[in-house]
Every structure is written in structure tokens, then in C-alpha cells.
Amino acid sequence: MRVVVDVMPKPEILDPQGQAVAGALPRLGFHGVTAVRQGKHFELEVDDTVDDETLAKIAEGFLANPVIEQWTVRRVDA
Amino acid sequence: MRVVVDVMPKPEILDPQGQAVAGALPRLGFHGVTAVRQGKHFELEVDDTVDDETLAKIAEGFLANPVIEQWTVRRVDA
């Protein structure tokens, strides 16, 4: 089974990478994008022994930094 | 409207960050995760003038590296 973990900077955290993209787009001729935030996207292949509690620990402990990031964990068909 | 762009290394491209996580988990006591791939997750706020063709150009040109990465673009309720 595939598990997707998306990790994003918390809203109150500056995101210079996202701001750089958002600032560059108008100069490149692309208008109408008002904000860009950049985070991380993890795809894990897990076997059936891995329960939701374990996935939560993995995400919080090793994929995200809880001080500055928020994250979502979801199982997807794959 | 929010648009999510997920960017992942192509399957044939090595992913040392993902491999590092996958290799570390068993040593940390977490078993059953057989593979980890790490990519990028972008959240864009766009107004109604931004069509799908424009989003495709932005993703291909500025969010992903088409030589080594693949990506998906989707509009989400926000």
C-alpha cells in the first residue's frame, strides 16, 4: 500500500522558496498566482503490518519538523 | 482557488533523500516500510484568470525539472 505524507511550512513560518517562485512568475509573464508555498511530498510503500499510529510517528519524527512544519498522512490506492 | 503541484523524481532517478529515510527507519525500530521517495509539494493560490494551460506551463517550467522529475497538477477546494 502507498502512503503519501505532505509536509508544509506552518502558515506563520516564512517560506523563501515559495516566495521566490511567487515573485518571479509575474516577471516571467505569468499573472494571477497570488501565493506559492513549497513543502515536501513523500511517497512510502508500506506493508499491511504498518498501522496508522506507526505512520503518524514516522511522519512526525522523521519526515517533518514539528516546530516549523505541519503535515498530512493519507493512504492511497497504488 | 488553490492548486497543488506534486513533483517527484522520475522512477529511474536515484533518490538519496528517500533512500536515507527508508534505510534509517528499520534501525529506528520501524519495520514494514519498503520504499520511500521524496519530492516537492507546492500549493499555489490562483485567481480565476489562470487556466489549465498556464498552470501546466508554470509547473513544467518553474516548479519541476522535466529532465529528472515528473509532476501532477490538480485544483483543490480551499
From TrEMBL, chains A, B:
One of its GO terms (cellular component) is cytoplasm. Its EC number is 6.3.5.3. It comes from the Bacteria. InterPro entries: PurS, PurS-like_sf. One of its GO terms (molecular function) is phosphoribosylformylglycinamidine synthase activity. It is found in: Cytoplasm. It catalyses: N(2)-formyl-N(1)-(5-phospho-beta-D-ribosyl)glycinamide + L-glutamine + ATP + H2O = 2-formamido-N(1)-(5-O-phospho-beta-D-ribosyl)acetamidine + L-glutamate + ADP + phosphate + H(+). The keyword Cytoplasm applies. One of its GO terms (biological process) is 'de novo' IMP biosynthetic process. Part of the FGAM synthase complex composed of 1 PurL, 1 PurQ and 2 PurS subunits. Part of the phosphoribosylformylglycinamidine synthase complex involved in the purines biosynthetic pathway. Catalyzes the ATP-dependent conversion of formylglycinamide ribonucleotide (FGAR) and glutamine to yield formylglycinamidine ribonucleotide (FGAM) and glutamate. The FGAM synthase complex is composed of three subunits. PurQ produces an ammonia molecule by converting glutamine to glutamate. PurL transfers the ammonia molecule to FGAR to form FGAM in an ATP-dependent manner. Belongs to the PurS family. This is Phosphoribosylformylglycinamidine synthase subunit PurS. The lineage of its organism: Bacteria, Bacillati, Actinomycetota, Actinomycetes, Pseudonocardiales. The gene is purS.
